[in-house]
Amino acid sequence: MPELPEVETTLRGLAPYLHAQAITAVTVRRTDLRQPIPANLAKSITHQTVSSLERRSKYMLLHLANRQTLLIHLGMSGRFTTYTTPTPPAKHTHVILTTPKAELHFTDPRRFGLCLLIPTAKLATHPLLKHLGPEPLSPAFSGKTLHTAIHTKKTAVKPTLMDAKVVVGVGNIYASESLFRSHIHPKTPCSNLTLKQCEVLAGHIRQTLTDAITAGGSTLRDYRHGDGQLGYFQHQFNVYGRKGESCPTCGTPIEHAVMAQRSTYWCPTCQPLKANKKAPR
DNA sequence: ACCCCGACCTGAGGGC
DNA sequence: TGCCCTCAGGTCGGGG
User: Distance (Å, rounded) from C-alpha A213 to C-alpha A218?
Assistant: First the structure.
């Protein structure tokens, strides 16, 4: 469900209920997520104060006053729902954090998500985080860094954009959308992309993610914000999920293929696949 | 060292 | 109504 904009939107929605708040109670209803929820979680974080909240890649990091960090990943189907009055858990609600302001229910039907506790000082070297590439919205990511990271690769650009070592936070939807805006065919070999194209692409990745955050993320299936509000960016999809529909730019039917086992969409007119590598210069 | 693929899960939706 | 199949926004570890 969530790519970077949805995680960012979720975290911003949680902040008013968590920042500088004490966790007064913790309920763990089921521990077998992608990795087990630690058995001592409730004991370790109850009565702790959330000193700050941070997003790294698609991980939400709740830094606690006791120098531990609660790391949460929403996987494919995870979400947080905020209630200001006590509310019975839903079927797949695995963790409930209670603060003086609200109950925060972490729900994840497919259980691809994570809820771990890590010493804050060890975050940078944690196996889940240490190999992550640059944040797409930070100055560490640019056309130049993108070109450097991928120009020797012969693989197709689309699945490469979803490689967290290249850039984090770009999932299946926004990979297709960014390539459409950049007029780059998803099957273009990375080694065929010029520095100029990488600059255009990096700019559109940044802009697409920023636009999605502004729109409150995308609402697919049952994703919604903690307060129940819907995101609206899905109405701005140009190609994702629109196989056979008209390209909003030129009217050509949108094409679809599975690449690296993920659905991929593009406009064959706006995103022509160039057979030959451009002459280096 | 790289890349691809299956696996991890449940639920929704379409076809029959 | 209901069964069965396919598909879904992420990530990791193993095998080629």
Answer: 9
Strand C bases near protein CB (under 7 Å) are 7-13
Q: Please name the nucleotide lying closest to A108, CA to C1'.
A: B10
Q: How far apart are CA A174 and CA A158, in angstroms?
A: 10
A248-272 confidence digits (pLDDT tens): 999 999 999 999 999 999 999 999 9
Which tens digit of pLDDT belongs to each residue from A221-235? 555 566 667 788 888
Token digits for A209? 């993610």
Pure H helices in chain A: 4-18, 41-45, 143-150, 157-161, 172-182, 195-214
Element spanning A117, H or E? strand A114-119
Nearest Cα neighbor of A83 from A70, A98, A61 is A98
The residues of A carrying an active-site annotation are: 2-3, 58, 262
Nearest nucleotide to A32 by CA–C1' distance? B9
Question: How many CB atoms sit inside 10 A of residue A86's CB?
Answer: 8
Cα-Cα end-to-end distance for chain A: 42
CA distances from A43 to A78, A97, A219 (A): 23, 12, 35
**Across the strands, what pairs with A131?**
none
